[in-house]
Amino acid sequence: MNGAGGPSACGGERSDSGDGNENAAFSLRNVPLLSRVGADRADHLRTDVDAAVAGWSDALLLKVDRRNQVLISGGQVVLGKAIKHAPKPDDHAVFLGRMPDGRHVWGMRGALEGPEDPHAESEVLDLRRAGAIFDDLSAQLVATATALLNWHDSARFSAVDGSPTKQHKSGWSRINPVNGHEEFPRLDPAVICLIHDGHDRAVLARQTVWPERLFSLIAGFVEAGESFEGCVVREVAEEIGLNVTDVTYLGSQPWPFPRSLMVGFHAIGDPEQEFFFSDGEIAEAAWFTRPEVRAALADGDWSSDSPSRLLLPGSISIAREIIESWAFSP
To answer: What is the bridge-based pairing of β-strands 188-196 and 218-221?
Structure first.
């Protein structure tokens, strides 16, 4: 992930947007695709063994294969009957919540199985490719299942003494049976920020590992003892050499690849300040005008065959939502 930063946690003194800086403030136009909510997480049921067993008979089961792929049909993830897998919840299933109709829904690793209707068309996709076509319910279930199962895959041994751990609380923690130490799903928070001049120009950057013309926002992982705002300032300075001000929160989105949480911001930068790429992660950065960004958005995303100078992230990323929200802000 590319990142950026500056001289202080707040990015210096806050500027006065009353000086004709009418486009400085904007907000997200839509909820990021992977932040949508369609099911009740029902966290109070995670430790209720009796409720879990009682709800299993008509519960639904989401299968996720080893490549984090799921089966989808008609824009929805395919859910099977849990009772066909086992007579009761086992140590490999994770509780995802309750459906709108009250049925429990669980997730687990396993081979993907087709829809019950043999005539229904289906396809195998991962969250990156299917996120844009999922409904709210499917987006939430698959994002949650992917994040939890990825964590379980890498947390089978205790970080304290290396002892094997077991799933606990319906998959929402792991416990060391030797000393009772309990561990919870790990998240790696990262900031992502659109830097603009307060008017009609914004900075987009290209990582060294990306193909030519593919640009996005500055992003980076939060360090120990650091605030989100402080991370924005530091990462921007490290990645492209700009000192930013007016760091403003926009929204967040889970990013279970494998276990991140993307926290979105925008900030003000000075177009007169020169770019400086100090850590080698960014190949190039440039100021783009609002009309240029709008034209690139109209061309699609970075899978497009457009000859445009600028190609942008796909809709599943919060980067896309932030860029669109700035480009079409009043």
So the answer is: antiparallel
